[in-house]
Amino acid sequence: xxxxxxxxxxxxxxxxxxxxxxxxxxxxxLEGLRGRLDYLRRLGVxxxxxxxxxxxxxxxxxxxxxxxMDIDPLYGGLSAWDRLxxxxxxxxxxxxxxxxxxxxxxEHPWFKAALAGDREMxxxxxxRRQPNNWQSxxxxxxxxxxxxxxxxxSFAPEQPDFNWRNPAVAEYFDQVLxxxxxxxxxxxxxxxxxxxxxxxxxxxxxxxxxxxHMSNQPEVHEVLRRWRRIADGYARDxxxxxxxxxxxxxxxxxxxxxDELPQAFYFDLLMCPWDAxxxxxxxxxxxxxxxxxxxxxxxxxxxxxxxxxxxxxTGGPATRPRGEVDVALGVRRARAAALLTLALPGSVYLxxxxxxxxxxxxxxxxxxxxxxxxxxxxxxxxxxxGCRVPLPWTSTGPSFGFSASPSPWLPQxxxxxxxxxxxxxxxxxxTWTLHHQALTLRRTLSGPLEWLPTPRHDVLAFRRGSLTSVxxxxxxxxxxxxxxxxxxxxxCTPDEIPGNTTAxxxx
Length: 507
Ligand code: GLC
Known about the structure:
Blueprint: E1 10-14, H1 30-34, H2 37-43, E2 47-50, H3 77-90, E3 94-99, H4 109-115, H5 119-122, E4 127-128, E5 143-145, E6 150-152, H6 167-183, E7 187-190, H7 220-232, E8 239-242, H8 249-255, E9 263-264, H9 267-271, H10 276-289, E10 293-295, H11 304-308, E11 310-315, E12 322-325, H12 327-342, E13 347-351, H13 372-377, H14 421-425, H15 431-442, E14 450-452, E15 459-464, E16 467-472, E17 478-479, E18 487-488, E19 496-497, E20 501-506
Parallel strand pairs: 1-2, 1-13, 2-3, 3-7, 7-8, 8-9, 10-13
Antiparallel strand pairs: 4-6, 5-6, 11-12, 14-15, 15-16, 16-20, 17-19, 18-20
Helix pairs in contact: 6-7, 12-15
The chain binds alpha-D-glucopyranose (GLC).
The site of alpha-D-glucopyranose has 9 residues, from loops.
């Protein structure tokens, strides 16, 4: 039996607002993306995942949906989306949409009716006379008062949580899924796929931090099974990839049972510090129970360059650490990490801009930051704007080729010129070219991973078919008899791999 297309695919994550702007309003759009599909073909990815682009007031930039079966005019509307899908398919690129089932927008017609006093509509959300003590994931209380009742929002107040215990909610999402599958998508990324159900009695949670009553309830698996049955009813192969933050790989594996999700992001690796032992353990666990859906960055975390280049952590969550960053070291390690990841069996989700080695923009002025995380968590967390700054395509021109407007929705720092994507394409040693070559060579790889012994704790080596991949995590060069690598994240000599480097040797 041949493998489904998604099993070894590399999917490029498009944060549409920041990818390419066609109409000069400073916000990326579908026509901008359509104009760059050849770029994505050339890079060598297999498909794209679009962050939410449905009609939305934008309190969480699209993760507050007011209509699940349309496209926001800001991005070009449904006709632009149809054109995009058709052009992507003509180039052999798959297209994944982002489904947001835990909550909608306060502008969704159901919530508006609920606020107007419709009891049946109120039951589609979680309204109570008394709030409990739960905290929103973005900071602050998870409840907002409207009259003599409060409603639950696991994220911002503009994102009311659905009541999945009301059958109308499940029926509605069946329709939404069918709408996009019928329209031709190849899969769906499911936003916080572990959160739809809350602990039934909404009990207080005495601890601080992660609150197990707000997520990972057993009933959620029924929803995923239901969606899997819908997806399996189509003649073509569709994927459902879950965004699931659960404590252990065993918890994650439950979502990947044969009748549930085909894929779930493996965030354990993304959270690993630059350490050989930690990477090896994480990869081993990921291969045994997590199905091998690798990713090193997305629109919610600091870019890999800035995470791996962190010298000392002074605060912030693990995904968005604060502290001094050595950018050159970060670029070097991020290149090594990317090459290592691209050698693994399974699929890879590549966040836009990572192929150019773009660092996080850490010094955005507070006055331009838009992420509700930043505004609700206070200065402890920079929030997620720094990884969402519009891409630099060229080193000159208004907004570095992103838009005809000189002022994109988030300002780009001057140093973005040094990372201009188009300038990297013809350079043999650029981060872009490394990704391009790795994506090309990766197509020849197959088979399981077999760890190879190494005499040093800071070196990881494994074999996959005819490929041997060696990563030196430490600073000291590593002598090797494997000869000249087919590809390396930093130049090697025939007998030595430098520190903070991955090298691929092909028999
Ligand atoms: C997910 C998304 C994030 C969003 C949140 C609420 O974690 O990745 O960007 O803010 O869900 O929808």
